[in-house]
């Protein structure tokens, strides 16, 4: 079969894309820390460039950007610590009481509907005491024991904690030269179109990240402030945690909602807490869905939220955690490509007849 030069060129690029995807799939565990560092480097590159333009050495700018990323991750982790430290002891006492209340109130109501449900309060209390009744020393002993049993997992986690900041620093340090070396790999006749295409992708991703950051900040203030007005003692950590995780569609909101409901049950022990959470999180979801995301994100990039969710799920299913990391950049590339294909189709003789 004789192929034209254009067909051979298209087939070559398809083979290159297939090889790249196959390598992503095969090397996913190894590539994970590098992709995490690459995503962070892309997000932090404007900050590093701004510092360099102000006369800072690039090594210092890269170091400050890495420190900023580390402090942000540490702050997110520390938000959850007071919630766990405060609520677990109360949870240990409240779960058996909740089971007794369910047997006394819910079981008769369900029985009238023909559903025979009764909880084993003694068994639940025993399970809670075993799972949540240990002291700090017991917990540390269990952690060390599991570390010995799963030493490779622990070493992998610790290795990534060291490797990601290191790779991030060198990416930020060498970013302009690295981008230029990658550009030199593009055939000269295609550089103009590739530069235009990647520039549009970069602008799209930048707008998405800036818009999403604004959504996160506004929702953090909303949830923390509204929960504080409702009288929640853990309003600040729960509210900020929920706001910061909204960039993960539905999962972030769901985790924050679960923490808020748990805090309401343990602090108030009445319908008031549940009602307050329902109002605060219901209004927050309306604010996010109908005001913030459409105005700050959707109108800027034209990427449907359903497309974002599908991309995250699809790439996650195909490539695991690496796929989730690559989902947003690849979705932006696909969106720009789709726009260009549509524009070419509307100018073609096939469309014009």
Runs in which pLDDT lies below 50 for 5 or more consecutive residues are none
Structural class assignment: mainly alpha
Number of strands: 0
Query: Distance between termini?
Result: 30 Å
Count of helical stretches: 13
Give your account of this protein's structure:
- The chain is an all-alpha fold.
- The chain has 13 helices and no strands.
- It has a domain at 27-184.
Topology:
Elements: H1 5-26, H2 28-53, H3 58-112, H4 121-132, H5 136-149, H6 151-173, H7 175-184, H8 191-229, H9 235-244, H10 251-267, H11 271-301, H12 305-347, H13 349-352
Helix pairs in contact: 2-3, 2-6, 2-12, 3-4, 3-6, 3-9, 3-10, 5-6, 8-9, 8-11, 8-12, 9-10, 10-11
């Amino acid at each position: 079969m004789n192929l034209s030069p254009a067909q051979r060129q298209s087939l070559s690029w398809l083979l290159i894309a297939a090889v790249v995807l196959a390598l992503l799939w095969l090397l996913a565990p190894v590539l994970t820390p590098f992709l995490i560092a690459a995503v962070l480097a892309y997000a932090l590159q404007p900050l590093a460039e701004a510092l360099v333009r102000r006369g800072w050495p690039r090594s210092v700018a890269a170091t400050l950007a890495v420190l900023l990323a580390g402090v942000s991750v540490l702050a997110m982790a520390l938000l959850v610590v007071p919630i766990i430290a405060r609520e677990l002891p109360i949870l240990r006492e409240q779960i058996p009481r909740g089971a007794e209340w369910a047997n006394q109130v819910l079981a008769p109501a369900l029985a009238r509907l023909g559903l025979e449900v009764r909880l084993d309060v003694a068994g639940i209390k025993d399970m809670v005491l075993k799972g949540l009744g240990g002291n700090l020393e017991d917990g540390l002993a269990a952690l060390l024991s599991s570390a010995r049993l799963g030493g490779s997992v622990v070493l992998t986690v610790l290795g990534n904690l060291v490797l990601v900041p290191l790779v991030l620093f060198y990416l930020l340090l060498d970013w302009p030269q690295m981008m230029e070396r990658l550009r030199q790999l593009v055939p000269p006749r295609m550089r103009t179109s590739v530069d235009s295409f990647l520039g549009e992708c970069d602008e799209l991703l930048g707008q998405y990240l800036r818009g999403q950051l604004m959504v996160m900040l506004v929702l953090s203030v909303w949830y923390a402030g509204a929960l504080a007005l409702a009288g929640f003692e853990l309003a600040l950590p729960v509210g900020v945690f929920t706001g910061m995780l909204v960039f993960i569609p539905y999962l972030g909101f769901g985790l924050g909602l679960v923490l808020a409901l748990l805090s309401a049950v343990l602090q108030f022990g009445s319908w008031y807490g549940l009602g307050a959470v329902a109002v605060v999180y219901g209004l927050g979801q309306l604010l996010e869905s109908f005001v913030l995301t459409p105005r700050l994100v959707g109108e800027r990039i034209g990427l449907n939220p359903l497309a974002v969710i599908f991309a995250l799920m699809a790439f996650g299913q195909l490539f695991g955690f690496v796929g989730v990391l690559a989902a947003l950049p690849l979705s932006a590339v696909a969106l720009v490509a789709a726009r260009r294909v549509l524009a070419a189709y509307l100018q073609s003789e096939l469309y014009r007849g």
